[in-house]
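Researcher: Next entry in the queue.
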Amino acid sequence: MSTNTNSHNRHRISDASISRRAFLTRAGMAAVGALLLPSTDALAKIFSKDRKLSFHNLNTGEELTLLCSPQQYYDRRTLRQFNYFLRDHRTDSVHPMDSGLIDLLYAVSVFTGSRGTFQVVSGYRSPETNRMLRKTSHGVAEHSLHMEGKAIDIRMSDISTRTIQKAALALQQGGVGYYRRSDFVHLDTGRVRSW
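Model: Structure for this entry, 195 residues:
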């Protein structure tokens, strides 16, 4: 019985690996097509390297650094850190975040050439927090992907939010919302759309 379980887990991991590889391939093609990178050779070199992603949570003041590698999975410890870091600071609720957000942020950092810090405006939102925010802001969706752990609102320390938006739109990997007045970009792993 454990052999079947191990075989099933290996198959699941293999499927996820193909999915991540497909994402990075599509992301690379989008970047080259959008002239964000000089060539496919340069892209291959960039995506083959580990990259540190630095985060600063603007609500809690906490810092986090993750080492990302497109060829490897994120271990449980890394995912736990990411989940806790992006918790709802109003209720202190922790929710599993979609690891695809890490891949998306990695790709944005590669395409823009940023080595700066992701400044997190919002990560996970509990239903209570989402309801409260809907009462005070017209830009909060009733069924927000923040409540599913599939969305993040960011800016970066060394590039403009407009540059983040352009890179994310080129990726075509989920939702991209540009909030010029509030100076942040919403990224999610839902269906492709923009506003």
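Model: Residues 2-194 form a domain with the Muramoyl-pentapeptide Carboxypeptidase; domain 2 fold (CATH 3.30.1380.10).
Researcher: Noted, moving on.
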